[in-house]
Structures are given as C-alpha cells and as structure tokens.
Amino acid sequence: MKQAKSANSGKFSLKSVVSISDFSRPDIEAVLLMAKKMEGTSRAKKCKLLDTINVATLFFEPSTRTRLSFETAAQNLGANLISVADGGTTSQKKGEAVSDAIRVVAGYSDIIIMRHFIEGAARRAAEVCDKPIINAGDGSNQHPTQTLLDLYTIEKEFGKIDGIKIGLLGDLKYGRTVHSLAHALSHFQNVKIYCIAPKALKMPKHIIDELRGHVWVHETEELDEHLAELDVLYATRIQKERFPDPLEYERLKNTYILDRSILEKTKPIFRIMHPLPRVNEISQDLDETSAALYFRQAANGVPVREALLFLLSKQVKK
Amino acid sequence: MKQAKSANSGKFSLKSVVSISDFSRPDIEAVLLMAKKMEGTSRAKKCKLLDTINVATLFFEPSTRTRLSFETAAQNLGANLISVADGGTTSQKKGEAVSDAIRVVAGYSDIIIMRHFIEGAARRAAEVCDKPIINAGDGSNQHPTQTLLDLYTIEKEFGKIDGIKIGLLGDLKYGRTVHSLAHALSHFQNVKIYCIAPKALKMPKHIIDELRGHVWVHETEELDEHLAELDVLYATRIQKERFPDPLEYERLKNTYILDRSILEKTKPIFRIMHPLPRVNEISQDLDETSAALYFRQAANGVPVREALLFLLSKQVKK
Amino acid sequence: MKQAKSANSGKFSLKSVVSISDFSRPDIEAVLLMAKKMEGTSRAKKCKLLDTINVATLFFEPSTRTRLSFETAAQNLGANLISVADGGTTSQKKGEAVSDAIRVVAGYSDIIIMRHFIEGAARRAAEVCDKPIINAGDGSNQHPTQTLLDLYTIEKEFGKIDGIKIGLLGDLKYGRTVHSLAHALSHFQNVKIYCIAPKALKMPKHIIDELRGHVWVHETEELDEHLAELDVLYATRIQKERFPDPLEYERLKNTYILDRSILEKTKPIFRIMHPLPRVNEISQDLDETSAALYFRQAANGVPVREALLFLLSKQVKK
After folding, report:
1. Alpha helices, DSSP H only, in chain C?
2. pLDDT band, very low/low/confident/very high, at A7 (cuts 50, 70, 90)
3. pLDDT band at residue B93, thresholds of 50, 70 and 90?
4. For B160, B292, C20, C309, which has the most beta carbons within 10 A of its beta carbon?
C-alpha cells in the first residue's frame, strides 16, 4: 500500500466529498485506482489502514443500504464507528442547527459521512467543519459516491470507461443518479449516451446542453431500436416520491420493464446496471443471466467507499 | 482451537441455520460442544477466530435482546458488524423484495443473521443467497438459536440431556419456543416431557403425535402434582399478541404463576427456565433462589451463537 | 498507563456512576486526572485498555449525542459495543421490568451505560446488577458524566477549579445540569457562584441553602453588572419540555441571549460554556471568538468518559 499512497497523494485534491461536480478526471481516477487496490489488499492489511480513525455516519434521512455499505468500508479498514441511523439526532428535535450537530460530532470523530434531506446540507457542513465530510445524499441534489461506484463498476467490467456506449433508462427528469453519472461520464473520451425516457420524464434540457460539448448524446423514447448498440443499460426506478401527480406516476411506472426477451437483441458483453432498490423495472428472470450487473454493482460500493475513506484520512491530523 | 476445528468439521452439516428441524443429533451436539469450547477459550484467542469476517444483523422485525446477544457473540469473535435494528431497510419501504435486500447485504457481509415477520422468509433468503443465513425468528414459525441455547443450558446444568424430566408450562398452543424445544428433545434418549397447560392452550395434537414415537409425553392441566418429578420447568409467557380474542387472554394469563412456594415440592436440582421476557409468570421472589436458571439461560445465548457463527464461518471463502 | 493505574486505584471508590452526589472530592479528582492521562495517551496504547471488555449503551430514552460520546470513548479503549439507541428494548414493550432488562444485558456485557426517563432507574439498576452501571441521565434527576466533563473543561481551561468565578445563567429552576454542577463545585475551595435567572426560573431555595455552607453564592436577575467579574458563564437552554405552561415559556425564552457585544465587558480569559444543544441562547457570532468554549466542552466528554470506563473496568472480573 505504501507505493499506492505516494503514487496517488498528488492526484486526489479534495478535502471533502460533497458533489460529483467537484471531481476532476484525476480525482475520479485516483478513487477508481485506489478502489482497485483495496480489492487486491488482504483484510489483514486493510484493517490497519484506518485503525486510529473514528468515522461517524449521520443519517438525518435514513438510507439503510448506503449506510451499511459505508459502515462495512469503514470497519474493513479498521476504523471505529459511531452511527445515527434513524433520521437525525435528538438535539435536532430540540431545535439545534445542523452546523452545531456537525461540530459536536466532529469533536468525537475524524471523518463524517452524512445524509440529509435538505439540498446543500453537506456543503454547509463542509464549510463549518474542519474534518472531512462525505455527502451520502442531500435531498434530490447529490449522491457522489453512487456515481463513483457506477464508474468503478463500468471500468471493472469493461476495462475502461472511455468509449463506453451507455443507455440511461427510465426517469431521467427526476433521477439524481443518472444526472450525476452523465455529468461524470463527460470527463471521459468517446462516450456515447442514449437518453431513453418517455417525454414526460426526459433528461432536463440544461443537462443535455451541458453534456453535448463533451459526449455524444442521443435522446429517444424507443428502447428496442438501440439495444444492439449498447454496452450498458442503466435502468432506474420511476420514483413515486418524486412525482407531484400520482396519476402521472401510475401511467408511466411500467413503461420500460426489462425481461429476458431483450437479450435476443443485445451484444454478448451487454450488461444491465441499476442503483437499486428495484421494484419491477427488471424482471427477476434476468438475475441469473450474465447481463445482470446490478448486484455486483452494489457490492462495488464497498471498495469505492474504502478508497474514499482512505484518501480523505490522509488529511486527518492525529 | 485448531484441534476443535478439525474434530468438529465433519459433524456440523448445515450451510445455514433456518429451522431446528434441519438439525440432526450430531448437528446439535457439534453446536453444544463448540459452545462449551467457546466458554473455555480466552477472549484474546476468541477475538481472532472471525477477524476477517463481516456479520450483518438484519432485523426486519425488531427484537432487541436476540440482536444484542448475536452482536455480542459476533464481536467476541472479532467479526465486523453491520446492523439494521429497527424493522427493515428503507429500500423495503420503497417496495423492494426481501430476496433483493438479502442479496445486496450479501455483497457487504459474509454471514447474515435475520429476523422477519413473515414465516419462511429465512428459508427464502437461504435459497437466493450463497452466504450462510441464521434465522433469528420468522414470525410465529422458527427461532432455532433459542432452542439450541435451551438445550445447551440443560446440558450445562444437568451434565446431559438424555433422561431429562422437563415440564413445559403455559401457552403450549401458540408458543414457538416450546414446540421447537420439544421437537429437539425428541433426538435424545429417555426424555420425559410433561405438557402442562389449560385446555384452551394445549400443545397441538400433531406435535404430540410426532413426539410420541420418540419421547414419553404426558398432558395435564395440573402443575402441582408433577412438581416433585421434574428436573426442569420451562415456563412461557402467555403472549397477548398471539390471541385472536383479548378476553380469552385476560382469562388465562395468570393461570400458572410461579412463586417461592413451589420449591416446597421440588427436588434440590429443580430449575426454572424461561425464554424471557417474563411479565408476571415468575415471581421475583424466585430470582435469588438456586431454582432460577432463566438469567443464566439468557446469558448462554452468547456462547451458543459464538459456536454457530464459528461453525458457519468455515464455509466462507475469502 | 501502569503507574496511572496504581496511583489512582486507591482513590476512585465507586462501583457504579449513578449520581454526582455519590462523588467525594478524591473521586472527582481521580476521574479528572485519568481523563488528562487519556488525552496524553496514544490511540495505539489506549485501544488495548478495554480490549476484553464489552460495553452496552441502553438508551431507554434517546439522546444521540450522549450516546455517541460514550460509544466513541468505549471504542477508543478497544471495547466491544452493543447498543440500544431508540428508546428501549422490544421486551419492555411486552411488559418487562427494567430490572430484568438490565440483568439480561448484564449477561452479555461488562459495563452498562443507561439512560432512562424514570428518576431513580439507574439506582435501581445498580442494585439488581453486579456489573458497573453508568447513569447517562434519568429523567430530570441526574446526569453525572455531564457534570464531570464540565469540571474537566474548567480545570483544563483555567488550570484549576479552586477559586473559579462562575455565572450560571438561564433556567436554574428546572436545569438538572446547573444543579449538579453547583453541587459538585461545592467540593472545591473559594468558588464564587453567580446565579443569574429571571425570578420565575430561580435556583431552588434548598439548593442555595445547601451551597451556602461551602461556596460564595450570589443571586441576581442582572447579567450585565457581573460580566466583568466572571471567569466562566455557564449558559443553559430554556427547555420548553420542562414548562407546565407554554405561554410562560414564550415569555421567558429570550431573556438572556448572548452575543458578541458582551465581550466588551468581560475579562480576556472569559469563557462561555453550554451543555448543548443550544437553540438561540448563544449567537453564532460568538462561535469563532476565544470565549466560545462550548464545542471544546462537548469534545471533552470523550476523555472523561474514557476515564470513567477505565476506572470502572478494574472491577470487572473476567
């Protein structure tokens, strides 16, 4: 690990992980490289890397899976862990500001992982706190570690991200995940993005405009006609909670259900990704096929989060 | 511990712990023997046994004490721990299948301990997941580790299980605990089971029939007349939540309250067991007598769960 | 640490930490001295001090920050940790007595940290349980570790507690924190306490009477006229939940709001303490001034709780 340390220490430039838009291509590459190293390092070695570090997971908005993934990563590296799992501290209920809560917890821990329902909460925390902050989701705004694990999954499966042909499917209007992934992919070369969505859930125009300068983008409502071209199809849940109108949700939710029949049209290397949880967007009959990348994608959250914790830990003065 | 490993590795045959009915007598004995070894092993040695293992406790239905007992066992063996304490994951609330939740958590951990309110949930989890599953209770169906700690408690207190004379008291109709214990006792020799219950809460006939081929069984409503014969009286709570009719509950709940006066009729080795929590089935005036085995019984959950985790960990490929 | 152990082992006399009134001056000093040693000990050494100890945090009443502080301390010393964060065990909901819950958890752990909404719950627990209990708050009664961290903060900041001039500000009628702190200060020499409160929230007469034999006490409604004399001003939140009458709360809550303007009247060494959370008693414009001691005060909870856990662990027989 010592060589890895010095090789990367010049590249990763961030003090906190708040937004994927803060990441340069070298920042992203430093994380992906370190995640790969983490997968190749024995548990016996890994568990000493953060063994004098205290990590706090503060979930002002609950998110079990993201929390468990971070807590696994922190413990694999030997860190101590304190955790608020269930939607905030009792002090908040007494009227305390988030900035105070963060400062108090910074007195107990060296790195703070937080999820909050308010957009910008993680940015604010990073401003008031001298310890590294990792944003594990702030409302419908940012969830940068999801994007990093998506990128890592693509790189691990296809060998590289440059040149990938990826379909983004489903709710491209409200989907934080696909917005961030598309943004991050624009750092890479020769990427082709197919935005596949019903009209009512199209990718916002300002994102399309932003992407156009960097990657090839095609907008369509038709999934079938592009299946043969795709390396990856990134499916998303039509999230009920993002819809102002429940009837609109009912009308659209089953628009793009994937099942085993799609594999007749795809390349052998074709893979399906999904941030999970799925409801019925992907039929269980795909789970045992080689196209099913989504469970391995979720598991990739652990080495990616190990990498982030390790890279940020270098700034912690003990 | 090395000798222990090889001595037992041929005996314990299970990949997951789902139901006590999956256990052969050698399986049970392998667990009891390993639990005894765990009690005789120093903490300094024990904490290396699972130090490259991640354990998850997923309590879709909360059960504080069972969770704490498992979490103590996992940590005593040096395992990392991730935990959902409070009734399920946020993804479930979004409509995710239990099988998906298990597969995602299996990407973070090596052994999954789960409690779920649906009968058969643990069996389903063991089918979809390639990691060992421990059933910590599925509805009113199975809670196999309770039965194993009950057996371990009897063996530890009386030297052996063969030949034990045990009274099962209280709610024998709805009580999952006594059904499983009676079933497990049928693996042993010369066991005498006294089923002591009011008519409305009698042991179900199909269980009595099953037992009859293997053990001596006597059904009665009278506690007093059999007290002198018993080695152990296993009392149970009349569980309000299992009664369709609350009036029926009120009428029956105080039928068999144990207090110090019963000790006038019992043998010196007589012991009272109870799965806890008790409400008022056992008077506190018994707590300081030698008959009170229930708190030590609860504490025995730790070595038994250590034993199970250790035995299952041998199947984990790292 | 070995010398520290033997030097203090004769001084700290308590088996459990239930009430600050159980502490003699030598007991207090043993804790403060050990806390200082903890701050001077490397993590690599500290994490072996309790590495064969299991600690349980049982919060029958939730209190996130107190729990996190204890859990940080326990883990820094290498202890295993089991935790009930969210307001009690499932067994309580089934009707179990607190004394039973404590006895069962004592079967899993060596030291129990508990918070309970009922006054006297920790005392009762210490009576039925042969393991050390730490009271992390019992209703509006006692919260002794808060007082110890307050004393440690004063000693650390001013070099000694003897001779301190301290203002207690705000809700002196209902405030558990200031009652305990005033009591503890009465063990020290030449202490001057200014009780600054509106008439409706005055320090109770029996506490004033008790203090008068040991320390100089002055009662007043005016903050401004005493600011120049004070070393420390201990501000408290006007706690809505302690008021029988909500209108009375609205009328009084903003009586003593501190902002940067007060620093024109104070000494250079003047410091503000607060048990936190604050709502609006202390303006954020004070946070970056040298007077703001409250966040460092909160962080001092960790070494003080490390000290208590270490001192109590000596009684644990393994």
Report:
1. 2-9, 25-39, 43-46, 64-76, 90-93, 98-106, 121-128, 144-158, 176-185, 205-212, 246-252, 294-299, 301-313
2. very low
3. confident
4. C309
Residues of B in contact with A277 (CB under 8 A): 91-92, 94-96, 100-101
CB C194 within 8 A of CB C168: yes
pLDDT in tens, C235-252: 998 777 767 788 888 877
Contacts of B116 (CB under 8 A, 6+ apart): B60, B61, B98, B122, B137, B138, B139
CB A38 within 8 A of CB A74: no
State the smallest CA–CA distance between residue C149 and chain A in angstroms. Answer: 14
What angle is formed at CA B158 by the lines to CA B156 and CA B162, rounded to 5 degrees?
105
What is the CATH superfamily name and number for domain A145-299? Aspartate/ornithine carbamoyltransferase (3.40.50.1370)
Query: At A283, is the secondary structure helix, strand, or coil?
Result: coil
A214-244 confidence digits (pLDDT tens):
999 999 999 999 999 999 999 998 877 767 7
Q: Each residue of A154-175: pLDDT tens digit?
A: 999 999 999 999 999 999 998 8
**β-pair partners for B56:** B82, B112
- Whether residue C5 has pLDDT greater than 70: no
Domain C144-299 has CATH 3.40.50.1370: yes
Q: Which residues of C touch A97 (CB under 8 A)?
A: 284
Which of A81, A82, A103 is nearest residue C295 as measured by Cβ atoms?
A103
CATH 3.40.50.1370 occupies which residues in chain B?
A: 2-143+301-313, 145-299
| Domain A2-143+300-313, CATH number (from 3.40.50.1370, 3.30.70.1230, 3.30.565.10, 3.40.50.2000) | 3.40.50.1370
pLDDT, mean of residues B81-104: 86
pLDDT score recorded for residue C280: 86
pLDDT per position as a tens digit, B262-312: 999 999 999 999 999 998 899 999 999 999 999 999 999 999 999 999 999
Identify the pLDDT of residue C7.
43
pTM of the model: 0.93
**One-letter amino acid of A56:** A
> Is C295–A82 a contact, with Cβ atoms under 8 angstroms apart?
no
What is the token pair recorded at B6? 């090889």
How far is the alpha carbon of C81 from chain B, nearest alpha carbon, in Å? Answer: 8
Quote the CA–CA distance of A214 and C260 in Å, as a whole number: 50
Cross-strand pairs, B133: B112
| ipTM of the predicted assembly exceeds 0.85 | yes
Decide: A259 and A286 in contact? Cβ < 8 Å. Answer: yes
For residues C94 and B276, what is the distance between their CA atoms, to the nearest angstrom? Answer: 10
Whether omega before B277 lies within 30 degrees of 0, making that bond cis, reads yes
CB-CB under 8 Å, B296 with C100: no
Name, in order, each residue with C-beta under 8 angstroms of B110's C-beta and a sequence gap of 6 or more: B53, B54, B55, B131, B132, B313, B316, B318
User: In A157-174, which positions are buried (b, 16+ CB within 10 angstroms) versus exposed (e)?
Assistant: bbeebeebbbbbbbbbbb
Which residue among the candidates A46, A115, A179, A183 is catalytic per the annotation? A115
Pairwise CA distance, residues C93 & B65, whole Å? 12
Question: Cβ atoms within 10 A of the Cβ of B168, count?
Answer: 26
Confirm if C209 and C184 have CB atoms less than 8 A apart. Answer: no
* CATH 3.40.50.1370 domain span(s) along chain C: 2-143+301-313, 144-299
From CA C178, how far away is CA C108, in angstroms rounded?
Answer: 35
pLDDT above 70 covers a percentage of chain A that reads: 96
Burial class (CB in 10 A: 0-12, 13-18, 19+), B295: middle
Alpha helices in C186-229 (DSSP H): 205-212
Residue A262 CA to residue A256 CA, distance in Å, equals 11
Burial A22-49 (b: 16+ CB within 10 A, else e): bbeeebbbbbbbbbbbbeebeeeebbeb
